[in-house]
């Protein structure tokens, strides 16, 4: 099921057939170093199935597959999900395979993901969270109109919180 499209990308629900893609992304330490620990194939399968089940109980929320239109290649994931420590607050997120870095896809996902969020959710603020060393994602968020609103701790990691108000 397609969630939304951008000029160059299709954002759709993951299916069980995406296990290899899901593992390639979430098992890649370089990709997830600022998100969570990399997973093995068994953990990826469990997470994928949980994610697919999440769609049914949380309309217009979840982690979705990002497909490059020109090649039909799996490029990564895009997410609208609750903040772990504050479930009532929703955050935008993305992860791309290294071969898709530096192509403007993260900015494109955020640019088109914001109106999707506000069209389908009643909240007036969309959040984003990055680890302090993740300067590339911080630049994407700032360039996309998010403002930095402070830090929070997750274990020993310093996370920076961003927010974007409903237009």
TrEMBL record:
SUPFAM superfamilies linked: Acyl-CoA N-acyltransferases (Nat) (SSF55729)
Cited PROSITE patterns: GNAT (PS51186)
One of the Pfam families matching this protein, by short name: Acetyltransf_3
Domain N-acetyltransferase: 9-167
InterPro entries noted in UniProt: Acyl_CoA_acyltransferase, GNAT_dom, N-acetyltransferase
Gene3D superfamilies: 3.40.630.30
Domain of life: Bacteria
Gene Ontology MF terms: acyltransferase activity, transferring groups other than amino-acyl groups
PANTHER family given in the database record: GNAT FAMILY, PUTATIVE (AFU_ORTHOLOGUE AFUA_3G00765)-RELATED-RELATED, N-ACETYLTRANSFERASE DOMAIN-CONTAINING PROTEIN
Protein's name according to its UniProt entry: GNAT family N-acetyltransferase
Lineage: Bacteria, Pseudomonadati, Bacteroidota, Chitinophagia, Chitinophagales
């Amino acid at each position: 099921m397609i969630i939304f499209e951008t000029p160059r990308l299709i954002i759709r629900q993951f299916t069980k057939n995406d296990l290899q893609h899901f593992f390639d992304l979430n098992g890649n330490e370089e990709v997830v170093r600022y998100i969570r620990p990399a997973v093995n194939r068994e953990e990826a399968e469990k997470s994928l199935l949980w994610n697919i089940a999440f769609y049914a109980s949380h309309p217009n929320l979840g982690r979705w597959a990002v497909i490059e239109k020109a090649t039909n290649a799996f490029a990564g994931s895009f997410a609208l999900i609750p903040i772990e420590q504050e479930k009532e607050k929703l955050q935008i997120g993305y992860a791309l395979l290294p071969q898709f870095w530096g192509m403007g896809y993260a900015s494109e996902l955020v640019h088109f993901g914001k109106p999707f969020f506000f069209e389908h959710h009643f909240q007036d603020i969309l959040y984003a969270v990055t680890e302090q060393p993740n300067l590339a994602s911080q630049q994407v968020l700032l360039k996309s109109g998010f403002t930095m609103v402070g830090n929070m701790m997750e274990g020993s990691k310093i996370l920076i919180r961003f927010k974007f108000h409903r237009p």
